[in-house]
Specification:
Helix content is about 30%, strand content about 30%. It contains 4 helices and 7 strands. Strands 3-2-1-4-5-7-6 form a 7-stranded mixed beta sheet, sandwiched between helices. Helix 1 (about 25-35) runs parallel beside helix 2 (about 45-60). The two termini are about 30 Å apart.
Length: about 160
Amino acid sequence: MLDRLDEVAEPPEGGTLVDLGCGWGPIALTAAARHPGVEVWAVDVSERARELTAENARRAGVENLRVLAPEEIPGDLAVDTLWSNPPIRIGKPAPHELLREWTARLRPTGTAALVVGKNLGADPLARWLGEPLPAREVGKAASAKGFRVLEIGPES
């Protein structure tokens, strides 16, 4: 599914990209390797996930990647790009709150790409995202193998 990220907006050079719910780090590591001029933040509640991401970054020689717990992120962090495979399986309220919080951190020119399984509610999530983000276009950027890449555009 990482190849589907080729179909979304590129992060701006010198900008900040957050991988929300990074797991072992495939999205964060790919972003950091492909965009060495971007500061990549890998965020996960799981200590084990953060350990794996940090170890994988070290092994890959990626130096533009920070791995942190959500509570370690500065409250004033403004995000240029948000890429995530959000934790949909934890129930509707928690991912909605998480996405509401993190999309609010997007700069006016910022964008987001969310990889979500079609069977996990990608299409209803796209409709829901339009409610708290009326100044941004939300749509489907790509679809393959049962997954959707939802893209949130800059403010209009």
